[in-house]
Design a protein that fits this description.
Layout (H helix, E strand, L loop, with lengths): L1 H28 L5 H23 L5 H15 L2 H13 L3 H30 L1
Helix pairs in contact: 1-2, 1-3, 2-4, 4-5
C-alpha cells in the first residue's frame, strides 16, 4: 500500500510541475508550436536518464522511492520519458531493429490512436 501512496503523491507533484513548466514555457515562447510539451518531454527524459544510471551505478533507492520518482513524478510530468527509456534499454540489449520499430510504431500508432478516438467521438456526437 505504501507503494501506491508513493506513486499517487509523486503523480500529483509531477502533474503540478508539468502545469507550471508548461505555463512558463508557453509564456516565454508562445503556443504556436507545442514547445511546452517538447520541453517537459526532454526534461523528463533527461531526469529519468540520470535516475536510471544513478540507480544502476551508485544508488539503490527503495522500491517505494524509485516508484515515487519514476512512475509518480516523471510518469505524470511526461510519459515520454518512460518511452525513451524503453528505446534505450532495447538498444543497450543490441536489439536495434526492435528499438527502431518500437519507436516508429509507438509514434505512428499513438498519433493514429488519438485520431481514431477523436473520430469515434465526433461520429457519436455529430
Amino acid at each position: 500500500m505504501k507503494l501506491v501512496f508513493a506513486i499517487a503523491f509523486g503523480g500529483a507533484l509531477g502533474a503540478l510541475a508539468r502545469y507550471f513548466v508548461s505555463v512558463q514555457v508557453s509564456h516565454w515562447l508562445g503556443s504556436n508550436i507545442p514547445w511546452a510539451t517538447f520541453t517537459v518531454n526532454v526534461i523528463g527524459s533527461f531526469i529519468l536518464g540520470v535516475l536510471y544510471e544513478s540507480g544502476t551505478l551508485v544508488w539503490q533507492p527503495t522500491a517505494e522511492f524509485k516508484a515515487f520518482l519514476t512512475v509518480g513524478i516523471l510518469g505524470s510530468f511526461t510519459t515520454f520519458s518512460a518511452f525513451s527509456l524503453d528505446v534505450i534499454v532495447l538498444i543497450e540489449r543490441g536489439a536495434w531493429t526492435t528499438a527502431g520499430c518500437y519507436a516508429f510504431g509507438s509514434l505512428v500508432m499513438s498519433v493514429l490512436g488519438l485520431m481514431a478516438g477523436m473520430m469515434l467521438l465526433r461520429g457519436l456526437v455529430t
